[in-house]
Amino acid sequence: MTLNSKTLLFVLCLFVISNKLVAIPKLKTAPYLFLTQIDSLIKQKNISNDMTQLELLILYNDALAEKHPDSIKIFKKLAILNADLDQPKDAYIFTKKYINNTLDFSILNDRAYNVIRDSEEYKELSESFLLQIDWPTFLFLYVALIGFFFTIIINFSKKSNRYAKLFISGFVGVHSLFILEFVLYISNIQYKLPHTYLMASVGALLYGPLLYFYFKSVTYNFKFKIIDLLHFLPTLILLVFLFPMYSLSSNEKIEIMLELDNSYNINRYIIFISKVISLVIYAILIGKIQFSHRKKGASSEYKERPVDKWKKTIYRIHIIYLISYIIYGLPVSGILLSFPYFINYIQVSIMSVMVVYLAYMAYVQPEIFKHDYALKSSVMSLEKYQKSGLTNALSQELKENLIKLFVEDKVYKENNINLEVLSKRLNTTRHNTSQIINEHFNINFFELINKFRIKEAICILKEDIHGSLNIIDIAYEVGYNNKVTFNKAFKKETSLTPSEFINSQFKKNI
Which residues belong to any copy of the HTH araC/xylS-type domain (predicted)? Predict the structure, then answer.
């Protein structure tokens, strides 16, 4: 080999070695570029193709692997780059990391996410962090607003037990608050209003006492006393227990919602267990009220009263709610590992049914909320006749004789009929006659007389096809002494005056 060839080979080797030595530092120093330097590189390269983006992606990943001081910003860069490169899995991972570190959900508004909008990963991110408005959300919100409206408006009703309306409005109010919190949760609005987190939990132990005192108020004409405040002591204790969590900052509450801070998980156990115990205890107490009151009173006529039907329905819904809450609470509190998500909706749906039912009854049958006289008179009559000494056998015999006098003899048509005269016909005392009417028909003597008289008058009016009879003649025929009294009794029973009733019958016959 000649000298020139040796020299040429030596120069070539130096050239190769120098290239390798130059390349090595580039690869090693790239990850240590600061984020501002990386951003300047982007501008210098004028990125416009995927290959350059892939190179940049590698650059960011290398920087992250080397624990770059700007790693949180790198999470954002990687999330957006992966989204833009249609890599939804990686975009999901880095988006979650960025949000968990910054609590900044606005990253999902970046246009890069349009590329992966149809992916399952994006849908999960969207459902977890972005505003969600669908028909269940709207429906539950509507029910909550109905409940709040009922809570306010029922307290303006007159001629009602003020304790009863206070308790039932409070009962509906705490349910409505829970439904509203659920709406904020499923719509992700709670991230915007973090201080609403667990806002309804402070009322978790109010459901039972409020319903219990309402049943006592409408059944026994109960009056609230200072000692009864002990029933609300557990709620006060729960409030003290939850106060440290309620006093947290917005960001700290969001971290709890994102399950980044598990130090308050014990709250779920305490709320769930204490609420179940409370609901069970008060379900038993309310059941005793229902059973004992029915046992004292009652005939079939008593059981069929609208007020008793609706109380029975409310109690049944309460029991169903208790069962559903246990099923819902076991997984939510962490006692069970997993559960179908629709269980959340079942429990809130039962709550919603209860709220809507109460509001509907307030609209259709306002007397149930406005007047508790039927219940009062029933209880008063039970107390009045408790020591009368009237046996069951004699009571049944007098009832049968009374029905015979009204149905067969039509004593109500006598214009001089009164309790004294009726008692003589039954061969018993005024006291016993009054007791029989109250216990077996759940009305007083005058209401019983009017019912039979108006029923007789209706039959006469229906048979008078040609309208040849005068109203005053019909009044005299059924036992009334004047037209005014007859008109009032007729309208009270049928919601129509005799003239209006005649006109309605005439239209039917045309």
Answer: 401-504
